[in-house]
Design brief:
Distance between the termini: 33 Å
Mean pLDDT: 89
Radius of gyration: 19 Å
Strand content: 5-15%
Number of strands: 6
Order of helices and strands: EEHHHHHHEHEHEHHE
Number of domains: 1
Length: 268
């Protein structure tokens, strides 16, 4: 739709995707710091954790992208270092899993309450993901299957096709917008849960379950270059979301202490 937000000449431009991802990070960081203070966490440690998770998230997303398209990159290793690869968003779940591992290690190293800290980041993650999907829509990546519904979208920008491969002139499911809208609704729900007394880990557990259900459903409408594992009905991402949902249900079933955020949490 709009891969380039601002263009100066023929060679320099600011990608819309990058601007929206940066916006998502800043909003998520601000909100995490605000929520963290409501439960007595150190704002500096929250900020550092967010930065480490963001960097590891970008790395994990790229690594899983290389893994998914292994044959392509093995045949042409030089393509790993191209501008197109740098601009590619990568695979969200690769970034999420590596960021989750880094988060647990950082939290334990700094003697922070693991589940309470995870709860703090649940709503920020949801809203950041919702904003990031708007960037995907602008860039043209993560497109859907052919759609005959009135709300189908048609990409016509040649630059979007050149960078992401999205087909032009074909009505498609706006899967990016599906995830963005549903992600925003999940954010509002998680913020409501966080503001009220809740068991440690319950907010993050609900994030894992709600996001997994949302992504599992949307995956049926997304275009996939890779075949499903074992020639089955589910994609690799859907199997990952099933595992994450099970983890979320496990967190929800745990009998953990109740957290009562301070009165100021209602203003967050």
């Amino acid at each position: 739709m709009l891969p380039r937000l601002i263009s100066i000449g023929d060679s320099f431009y600011i990608p819309t995707y990058g601007v929206l991802v940066a916006t998502a990070f800043l909003i998520g960081l601000w909100l995490a710091g605000r929520l963290g203070r409501r439960v007595g966490l150190d704002p500096e440690k929250i900020a550092n954790l967010a930065i480490y998770c963001t960097l590891s998230g970008f790395l994990g997303a790229k690594l899983m992208m290389f893994l998914f398209d292994w044959e392509k990159y093995a045949a042409d290793p030089g393509s790993i270092f191209t501008i197109e690869t740098l601009q590619a968003a990568g695979v969200f779940h690769g970034g999420f899993l590596l960021a989750l591992l880094v988060a647990v290690l950082y939290i334990r190293r700094n003697h922070m309450p693991v589940l309470t800290t995870m709860d703090v980041f649940a709503a920020p993650l949801a809203i950041a993901h919702a904003i990031g999907r708007l960037g995907c829509f602008a860039a043209g990546c993560c497109w859907g299957n052919v759609c005959g519904r009135p709300w189908a979208v048609t990409f016509r920008n040649p630059e979007a096709n050149e960078v992401t491969g999205v087909p032009l002139g074909v009505p498609l499911h706006p899967t990016q917008l599906y995830e963005s809208i549903l992600g925003a609704l999940i954010f509002l729900w998680l913020l409501r849960v966080f503001r009220r007394p809740h068991r440690e880990g319950a907010v993050f557990g609900q994030y894992l379950v709600l996001y997994s259900v949302m992504r599992f459903s949307v995956e049926f409408l997304r275009h996939h270059d890779q075949p499903n594992p074992f020639d089955g009905p589910f994609s690799t991402i859907q199997w990952i979301t099933i595992a994450l949902a099970i983890l979320g249900l496990w967190l929800l079933r745990r009998q953990t202490p109740v957290v009562a955020p301070g009165p100021a949490a209602a203003k967050a």
